[in-house]
Structure formats: structure tokens, C-alpha cells
Amino acid sequence: MRDHQSTSSMGSLAPSSFSKDWKTRLNSSSSYVLQVVTPDQSRKIYQALKEKGLPVALVEYEGEQHGFRKAENIKYTLEQQMVFFARVVGGFQVADDISPLKIDNFDTSSDA
């Protein structure tokens, strides 16, 4: 864990600055208008984990904010998170007929 008292700038507290310490998979959803973790930070986290070879997926939603508002985005996010965890963590198929998004460092070109 980092000592937040000794950091010299808020940039060092950005979520992407911790990505080098992550050792597990991540499914991240982001909006273009996000004020908590910016889209740029989401992309940096995604890229860092992808470069580490960890299973990762990123979905960006235009017009959404922190805490999704549009029903279709909420539904899609929940379905994709369920499928992501079933495939990567649980190793099982979900019962629902859901087309999974591509998981980088997990799917081969013929799997997704």
C-alpha cells in the first residue's frame, strides 16, 4: 500500500498509477462523462493490465455518468460482468443467451 501522506501530487493518487501493482483480472465499464475515474484513467488502467497480460475488457458508454442511467447500458453491463466472471473466474457458461464481448488476453480471435 502506498503512503498517501508522502505523495507530492494528486496525479500519483490516480487509479492508473496503481495498475502496476495489480495482479488479477479486471472488467471495467466507463462513461465518456465520468467525473470520478475519467475515461482517460479507465483507458490507462485497461492498457496497463492488457500489457501485463491479464484478462481485461473495457466498455465505454457515451453520454453516461458515474452510475449508469440508461436501462440498456445497465442491462448490458450487468450481463457482460456476469459473463466475464463466469468465463474468467468461474470457468462456467451462463444459462442466458448472451453474446460475450472480447476479453483481451483471454480470448483467441476465434473465441469471441
UniProtKB/TrEMBL annotation:
<feature type="domain" description="Peptidase S9 prolyl oligopeptidase catalytic">
    <location>
        <begin position="36"/>
        <end position="90"/>
    </location>
</feature>
<dbReference type="Pfam" id="PF00326">
    <property type="entry name" value="Peptidase_S9"/>
</dbReference>
<dbReference type="InterPro" id="IPR001375">
    <property type="entry name" value="Peptidase_S9_cat"/>
</dbReference>
<feature type="region of interest" description="Disordered">
    <location>
        <begin position="1"/>
        <end position="21"/>
    </location>
</feature>
<dbReference type="InterPro" id="IPR029058">
    <property type="entry name" value="AB_hydrolase_fold"/>
</dbReference>
<dbReference type="InterPro" id="IPR050585">
    <property type="entry name" value="Xaa-Pro_dipeptidyl-ppase/CocE"/>
</dbReference>
<protein>
    <recommendedName>
        <fullName>Peptidase S9 prolyl oligopeptidase catalytic domain-containing protein</fullName>
    </recommendedName>
</protein>
